[in-house]
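Incident review: delayed structure delivery

Summary: a single-chain prediction request sat in the queue longer than the usual turnaround. Root cause was a stuck worker, restarted by the on-call engineer. No data loss occurred. The affected request and its eventual output are reproduced below so the record is complete for anyone auditing the incident later.

Affected input:
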Amino acid sequence: MAYPVIVGGNGHSGTRIFAEILDEAGVRMGFPGLTRDKRSYDLNIRGLLNRWSGPYLRQELTPGQRKSMEREFRFALRLYFPSRSHPWGFKNPRSMFLLPFYDQIFPGMRFVHVIRDGRDVTLGNKLAGNPEYISAFLGNDMPGHSAEERMIEFWGRSNAKAQDYGTQSMPGRYLLMRFEDLCERPLENATRLLEFAGADAGQVSELIRLIQKPKSVGRWAQYSESVISRIQKVGQPWLNRYGYG
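Output delivered after worker restart:
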């Protein structure tokens, strides 16, 4: 049975292009309108994620509830991907938050962790943050801070938690990729992605046509110096960690 390749990261980090490349390379990433959203490529499990992600992150689940969560996810994914003899997988940004859970129910899975400059994720991106997930990572740690300051701290903590788990518990099955690197060096990084997923990298020269650097890359620099300064003061340790310092 083929292992799944799961793509995740913060919302609006560029996860879609990674899923598109994998899908065109033969890794079945769901079907438009049936198992995934036509616009975002996200797997249509919003109800499951809304019901279980918050309690899971806050560690509020009883053993019985944890079993129910596992049962519901297994059922939905079996329904969406009944045949697993060929490469398959899915993309949903919130998969990053559930990485240990997915690793438990899919031994052998591969995880592609997409990261994008936290300043771009934070500024000019009204849809990136979700109060429930932000509070699950921050709690009451940042009283008096602005929504943007909390967002970039959430960006740092959530990515670090996924990275720490992936590197420690999934050696050889975890891949961290920066969205900007894929845009700047498409041939090199698309090849890395396909080889990691076990897909045919021989067609990479054709697949890189999908990669287009959006105008939103670097949008954070258009904001006032005072806003940028506040964001960078909070996020600098995380920005440095991921090469955005």
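Verification: The chain has a mean pLDDT of 93.
Action items: add queue-age alerting; document worker restart procedure.
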